[in-house]
Specification:
- The chain is an alpha/beta fold.
- It is built from four helices and eight strands.
- The strands form two sheets. Strands 2-1-4-3 form a four-stranded mixed sheet.
- It is rod-shaped and about 85 Å long.
Length: 170
C-alpha cells in the first residue's frame, strides 16, 4: 500500500480498530476516538496500516517521519535498479568492412553497458531480390559477438526490413 492511501487521524472513520502503540506492542481493539486520544496524548499520529483487515489495524507513530523513511527507501531502491533500454543499430545489406567494424564497436559498447541491441537491416530498390545478403550480414553479427550475447528475437523479415534483437549474456 502506498503512503498516499494511508488514512491518518481524523480521516479514519471505521470504529473499532485494532491498536498498536509506538513501541510495536498490541494494545487491543478500541474505539477510534479513544485511539485518537491515546495518539494525541503521546504527541503522535494515528495511522491506518491495514485497512482491509477486520477490524482495521491502526498504529501510533510519527507520520511525517514515516513518510520520510518510505521516500528514502524508495529512492535507494530506484538507485539500485538499472533500466534496460533497447539501442538500435541500422545497417545495409552491402555494408563496407570499415562501417561494419564501426557499428560492431558500438554494439559491443551497448552490450557492455547492459542494454539490448536491435539490428535493423534496410533494403532499398532491387536489393529485395537478394534477402540472403541481409541474412548473411546478421549471421556474421551473431558469429562475431559469439558467446557474449543471447539472441532474443532471431532474424525476422518485415517488408523492406530485417531485424534481430540481442541481449547481453548475464
Amino acid at each position: 500500500m502506498s503512503q498516499e492511501d494511508l488514512r491518518v487521524n481524523d480521516r479514519i472513520r471505521i470504529s473499532p480498530v485494532r491498536l498498536i502503540d509506538q513501541h510495536g506492542e498490541q494494545i487491543g481493539i478500541v474505539a477510534t476516538d479513544e485511539a485518537r486520544d491515546i495518539a494525541a496524548d503521546a504527541g503522535l499520529d494515528l495511522v491506518e496500516v491495514a485497512p482491509n483487515s477486520r477490524p482495521p489495524v491502526c498504529r501510533i507513530m510519527d507520520y511525517g517521519k514515516y513518510k520520510y523513511e518510505q521516500a528514502r527507501k524508495a529512492k535507494e531502491a530506484k538507485k539500485k535498479q538499472h533500466t534496460i533500454t533497447v539501442k538500435e543499430i541500422k545497417l545495409r545489406p552491402k555494408i563496407e568492412e570499415h562501417d561494419y567494424g564501426f557499428k560492431m564497436r558500438h554494439a559491443r559498447r551497448f552490450l557492455d553497458d547492459g542494454d539490448k541491441v536491435k539490428f535493423t537491416l534496410r533494403f532499398r530498390g532491387r536489393e529485395m531480390t537478394h534477402p540472403e545478403l541481409g541474412e548473411r550480414v546478421l549471421e556474421k553479427i551473431k558469429d562475431d559477438l559469439g558467446e557474449d550475447i543471447v539472441v532474443e528475437s532471431d532474424i525476422r523479415r518485415e517488408g523492406r526490413t530485417m531485424t534481430m534483437l540481442v541481449a547481453p549474456r548475464t
